[in-house]
Amino acid sequence: MQDWENKNPAEEIEKKIVDFINRVKNKSKGSGQAGGNGPSKSVLAFIVLALLLAIGVYSSFYEVNTEETGVVLRLGKFSTYSEPGLHFKLPFGIEQVYLVPTGRVLKEEFGFRTVQPGVRTTYTKRGMEEESLTLTGDLNVSDVEWIVQYQVSDPFKFIFKIKNPIITIRDISEAMVRKVIGNSNVGEVLTTERAFLASKIEQDLQTVLNGYDIGVRIVTVKFQDVTPPDPVKTAYNEVNEAEQQKESLIFQAREQYNREVPRAGGEAKQIIQEAEGYAAERINKARGESNRFLAILAEYRKAPTVTRQRMYLETMEEILPKLEEIYVMDEKGGGMLPLLPLRNEQGGKK
């Protein structure tokens, strides 16, 4: 029994009352023939009225669960919606209530069925081969399993617009999947374009259902599993592994490129900056030497002898401390003068 079927227990109770009345009549006839001591008509009428009153009271209340919406019909016409909780309605079929699960997401499975949900959910594909086999645009066959999740947005339209909305949703979903996959090649279906194809199916399915105006909102369309048929599954798996390896190598190459190119650019900039710094240093040093030479030349022109002597002394002052041993020669080329251990005395060396 579907959740949105009419919740009217009065009909079953009326059947039981009719059976009870018939049994009472049969007993009264039998007892009347036997001794004429059967129950009177007034007692029988009282029992019937009491039972009818009980039926009226019992059928005047109904309960709407948390995830449901009640659609109330009065004399066969739409009256109102009822929210979760305990409600009152007119008895004896004057008002009828249909409960629709609007608060939860409903699911339809294609190409497989859930056998036992739970922590370790089990599935079966037995007898679903025709439902899952789909022809692609390049005339290849793929084994497609998918689910459609939807929610009832208008419970009245969902019940009364179409005779069997669930079958309608399943038929349209299957048609949309075969249409979209039939316009794609097998490589897109099996590898790279699953998410895009599922999104396209979801949009097309929602558009068609909006045209039917049955009050359904598609939540998602998701491919559960897309594989080639069993006879060619091994070859397709090898192709898929090769594609994945290719993508992995491309990713590694891009990662190395993004790592090496910035580093090389940084090293090149560092070398250029060092060269520019070295060039500036050499130029400044050359300019300083040139300015120093020009300044000495100007002083030399003013006093050549003094300037020459000063340059000689400055040069000796710079050179002599670097020498290990110093010998003083006579101007006339005579014998050597004693060794002057100036450096040993200054530096503490022997």
β-strand percent reads 15-25%
- Please give the CATH architecture of the largest domain: 2-Layer Sandwich
- Quaternary structure type: single chain
Structural class: alpha+beta
Helix/strand order, N-terminal first: HHEEEEEEEEHEEHHHHEHHH
Residue-averaged pLDDT = 80
Report low-confidence residues grouped into runs of 5 or more. 34-38, 346-350
Number of strands: 11
- Distance from N terminus to C terminus (CA atoms, Å) equals 117 Å
Helix content: 40-55%
CATH topology of the largest domain, anyone? Tetrahydropterin Synthase, Chain A
Based on CA atoms alone, the radius of gyration comes out at 52 Å
Based on Cα principal axes, name the global outline. Answer: elongated
Q: CATH H level of the largest domain: which superfamily?
A: Band 7 domain
Summed up, the domain count is 4
Number of contiguous helices = 10
User: Under the CATH scheme, which class of the largest domain?
Assistant: Alpha Beta
Largest sheet data: 4 strands, antiparallel
What does this structure look like?
The chain has 350 residues and is an alpha+beta fold. The chain has 10 helices and 11 strands. The protein folds into 4 domains: 10-100, no CATH class; 106-227, Tetrahydropterin Synthase, Chain A (2-Layer Sandwich); 230-302; 303-347, no CATH class. 54% of the residues lie in helices and 19% in strands. Strands 6, 9, 10 and 11 form a 4-stranded antiparallel β-sheet that branches. A 3-stranded antiparallel β-sheet has the order 3-2-5. The radius of gyration is 52 Å and the shape is elongated. Mean pLDDT is 80; it is low at 34-38 and 346-350.
